[in-house]
Design brief:
The chain contains four helices and no strands. The protein starts with 19 loop residues before the first helix and ends in a 13-residue tail after the last helix.
């Protein structure tokens, strides 16, 4: 018969885990304060996706690459829409000035709502990757364009 030891098991690691997906998510989030860190992050994601040996990290890299392109595409669409509204508001020859003011205000409101919604989506995607990366867990739907 074996004796039970009174030594408690070692505590589970609850500290911050620094890994590739965590770094890339942090770079993406830092883009809201800088301009270029998302570009650095996506380059790292493409490079590390090819060289990593762990499957859970590959799912994060796929997810984060899609997050980058979702952001670029989404902000480009908002920018094109905003440019269209500006162009339409400058075409005063076709419509009265008060109608152009309404078009401009509508463009600002619609564009602002889309920018806020897209920004929230991107922050949530980065936060989900951060949380799962801290647990060494794969992303559930790495090929998804939504949350």
């Amino acid at each position: 018969m074996t004796e039970q030891s009174n030594i408690p098991p070692p505590p589970a690691s609850t500290g911050f885990r620094f890994n590739g997906p965590t770094l890339i998510s942090g770079l993406y989030l830092a883009t809201y304060f800088t301009v270029f860190t998302a570009l650095v992050g996506v380059i790292l994601a493409y490079v590390w996706k090819r060289h990593t040996g762990e499957d859970w990290q590959r799912t994060h890299y796929s997810y984060l690459i899609r997050t980058f392109w979702l952001g670029i595409g989404g902000y480009a669409i908002v920018g094109a829409g905003f440019a269209g509204f500006v162009w339409a508001s400058q075409a005063e020859v076709l419509v009265s000035s008060s109608a152009m003011d309404a078009v401009a205000i509508t463009g600002i409101v619609v564009g602002g709502v889309w920018v806020v919604a897209l920004s929230i989506l991107l922050v949530i995607r980065c936060a989900m990757s951060l949380v799962n990366a801290q647990q060494d867990a794969p992303m559930p739907k790495p090929e998804s364009w939504t949350i």
